[in-house]
């Protein structure tokens, strides 16, 4: 997979290192030449010295050939511009943007070309909730400007889904149970998989289907 990472700070270089280790073709765009010199000594990525907010520079970098763009700079306004140019000018299939300040999270949506917005404070909050919550639906990640989400619930003894096969739950067509964690083992569920108390259930839901999935897995409506 061809990935372009805009921003060679700690976050950008860490992502680049992980993707290179997984065998992906990584292009890093960074406007600070000194930073590129230092980082290129550690990472065998393709490097391009340029301002990723300039359209001409993005054309020169070959952005039209990448499958994923990661806007990973430390400035939210820069990440938004990169996302918008990547989607509108180059039709990049997947744009992932870093949110530095949680108050700006609402801006990172499809209007700005963002497919996935990653906010560290929000993610940490979700992980804390996920670790301590049983019988509560916890949002782990938002996709497509907030229209779709990855949610998690640990089934409580009172869950109407406990001891039921997935095929009989009546999961909405615009939702899907994508994974289970049972006794620290990851399971890929099938229709005949029977859910058990204590299962960590991960589901993809839309805004329209989230409440129905909550009712199926928890049995109570969302708090007002």
Commentary on this structure:
This protein is an alpha/beta fold and 224 residues long. The protein folds into two domains: 2-118, Rossmann fold (3-Layer(aba) Sandwich); 133-217, 2-Layer Sandwich (Alpha-Beta Plaits). Helices cover 28% and strands 26% of the residues. The chain has six helices and eleven strands. The protein has helices at 10-21, 33-40, 55-61, 76-90, 120-132, 210-217; strands at residues 2-6, 25-30, 46-49, 68-71, 94-99, 116-119, 138-143, 148-154, 176-182, 185-187, 200-206. The strands form two sheets. Strands 3-2-1-4-5-6 form a six-stranded parallel β-sheet, with helices on both faces. A five-stranded antiparallel β-sheet has the order 7-8-11-9-10. The longest helix has 15 residues, at 76-90. The chain is elongated.
Short description, anyone?
With 224 residues, this protein is an alpha/beta fold. The protein is built from six helices and eleven strands.
Which terms would index this structure?
single chain, 224 residues, alpha/beta, Rossmann fold, Alpha-Beta Plaits, 6-stranded parallel sheet, 5-stranded antiparallel sheet, 6 helices, 26% strand
CATH superfamily of the largest domain: NAD(P)-binding Rossmann-like Domain
Number of individual domains: 2
Task: Let me know the average pLDDT.
Answer: 88
Query: Which percent band covers the strand fraction?
Result: 25-35%
Give the helix level as a range of percent.
Answer: 25-40%
Structural class call reads: alpha/beta
Rg over alpha carbons? 20 Å
Oligomeric state as shown: single chain
Main pleated-sheet profile: 6 strands, parallel
- For this structure, the CATH topology of the largest domain is Rossmann fold
What order do the strands of the largest sheet run in, or round the barrel if closed? Answer: 3-2-1-4-5-6
Helices and strands, in order, run as EHEHEHEHEEHEEEEEH
Q: Low-confidence parts lasting 5 or more residues at pLDDT below 50?
A: none
The level-1 CATH class of the largest domain: Alpha Beta
Shape: elongated
Compute the number of strand runs: 11
The total of helices stands at 6
The CATH architecture term of the largest domain is 3-Layer(aba) Sandwich
Distance between the termini: 44 Å
């Amino acid at each position: 997979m061809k990935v372009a990472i805009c921003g060679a700070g700690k976050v950008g270089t860490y992502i680049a290192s992980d993707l290179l280790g997984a065998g992906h073709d990584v292009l890093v765009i960074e406007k600070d030449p000194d930073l590129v010199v230092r980082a290129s000594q550690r990472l065998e990525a393709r490097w391009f010295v340029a301002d990723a907010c300039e359209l001409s520079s993005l054309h020169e970098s070959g952005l039209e050939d990448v499958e994923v763009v990661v806007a990973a700079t430390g400035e939210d306004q820069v990440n938004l511009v990169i996302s918008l140019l990547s989607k509108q000018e180059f039709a990049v299939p997947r744009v992932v943007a870093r949110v530095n300040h949680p108050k700006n999270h609402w801006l990172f949506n499809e209007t700005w070309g963002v497919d996935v917005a990653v906010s560290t404070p929000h993610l940490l909050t979700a992980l804390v909730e996920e670790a301590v919550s049983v019988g509560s639906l916890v949002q782990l990640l938002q996709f497509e400007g907030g229209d779709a989400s990855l949610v998690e619930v640990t089934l409580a003894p009172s869950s109407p889904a406990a001891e039921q096969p997935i095929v009989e739950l009546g999961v909405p067509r615009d939702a899907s149970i994508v994974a289970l964690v049972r006794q620290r083992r990851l399971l890929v569920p099938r229709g005949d998989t029977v859910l058990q108390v204590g299962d960590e259930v991960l589901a993809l839901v839309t805004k329209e289907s989230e409440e129905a999935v909550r009712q199926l897995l928890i049995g109570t409506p969302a708090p007002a």
